[in-house]
Fold these 2 entries.
Entry 1:
Amino acid sequence: MPLFYQHNINESTRMAIWRIEEPEAFFLSRVPSHGSVTHPYKKLQHLAGRYALTAIFEDFPLEEIVIADTQKPFLPNDRYHFSISHSGNLAAVIASNRNRVGIDIELITGRIKVISEKFLGNKEKKYLNDLESVPQVQLELMTVYWSAKEAIFKWYGDGEIDFRKHLEITAVRHNGSNGTLDCVFRKNGGSTLTVHYHLVSGFVVAWVVT
Ligand SMILES: CC(C)(COP(=O)(O)OP(=O)(O)OC[C@H]1O[C@@H](n2cnc3c(N)ncnc32)[C@H](O)[C@@H]1OP(=O)(O)O)[C@@H](O)C(=O)NCCC(=O)NCCS
């Protein structure tokens, strides 16, 4: 069963992770092909993401998806708000017929440290530096921070977010393989968003629902 994680967040909102094991033809039986993605594996990831939307909402109108100037895919009639992410052989999706949503999935790897200066503010860096005696926890949490900010970027959808300036993670609550973050969002007058995350098979998946 390729849908290996599913979470019904509330009455209107569902998320899921699809493990990609099928050939392109399987997804093309249901997903309209636009030919915009040409790299073979990227195409498979793209198709799997779209397909997974129909696995959480059977009536999801894939053929109505359009791409905004910002590159955010959306449905013009807002029947569903949705967000898609892929990493390696996993595709994560979230969709809602009421709430705005954003999702991101990332493989946990030391490569995140190379870009950490670009997305971590000073207080966030200090919090993570204080975890240097537990390097695996530090690495997981750094990936969670990145994934959470990417999920917010997608939730927002209008681009122009500076991850250091506009997004600051101020609290983390970890519980087993799950957790939540508070993130101050310094755009549109400012607000605090709650981001949920889940650690699974060496990946982080983070999502936001408002
Ligand atoms: C757009 C972006 C979020 C995609 O993330 P990614 O890790 O490259 O790829 P993911 O697999 O997680 O997500 C890709 C999906 O996001 C969606 N997407 C693309 N652009 C989007 C946007 N502007 N808003 C919302 N969703 C978007 C699409 O559904 C896409 O998949 P699809 O083309 O198969 O449908 C990322 O490239 C980006 O621009 N991030 C912001 C970077 C940034 O500003 N960094 C500053 C600090 S370093």
Entry 2:
Amino acid sequence: MIDVTRIKERIDCRTLVERDLGRPKYRNNTYSTYKCSLHNEEKGFSLVVYEDHWRCFGKCGRGGDAIAWLQAYHSLSFQEACEQLSSGDLPQLAHPRLSRQQKSQMLSEPPDAGWQEAAQKVAHQAMDTLWGREGKRAWRYLEEERGLTEDTIIRAGLGYVPGDYREWQTIDGLKVPCGITIPWFADGAIWGIKVRRAAGEQRYHQVGGGNIKGCLYLADDIKPGMPIFLTEGEFDALIAGQVGLGLICPVSIGSSANKRINARWFKKFIAAPRILARMDNDTAGEGAASEIEALSSAVRRVQVPVGKDVNDFYLLAGAIAVQAWIEANLE
Ligand SMILES: [Zn+2]
């Protein structure tokens, strides 16, 4: 009997398709692209091949797994395709692919060195712009509407990429959304750059190719033996640091959809005598808080007394009130 699951988890579709079509036009860690030979594509590169499946985003729209590729490209029957794949003379993966759950338990890594170098340039260029004439409005926004001090802005390395809120710029080969840049540094690497747009439905974007999902904002600021303040938005963490520095080490999981903490950062939480978690009351925020609770009994969930988040609370009540609130929660 054919064990289809076993065949599929041992074959990397990218290697399989490369054997048939040669070098891809483009390749990154996740996928490769080709001219789609199934519809004899002339212009464009519509065939996208991932580790476990492939798909034509052009005319023919075909797609499927490794078995489906052999059926389509070599006109084989299902049975024949399976036999070829299990015969062993095709490129096999050294280790079977990991399940989604196994993957989530893996320790995250920053983007490669080339990306990081380009991202550093983007971050520096944006910092320069923020300090210049073009950055005046962004600067005012950070000071007046967010309440950040010059010191915090410098410490966080915030910057500005000028342009309309719908625009993207290409800087050093990276796709950069226009807006206020928030670089994510940790463990000696730059993991991503979050960008806060001036308007639009989706306020936060990130520079293409980053791995913010795998990072923890301000993770390097965690000091063993000090309480941690876990929050969602980067600005919340920056404000908490601004008023509570010396009392707590603020970290953020980021203000957008991803609200999980990669296992890479768990060890940072274990030595904390107290972890204050200020999460939004939604399922995602709930998920992140429970994750940390499973790790440490020092977690205390907190909510701000006024306003929707820490930044809001600060603007409404002022630094002394926020500081007093943090102190009260640490008792
Ligand atoms: Zn096609």
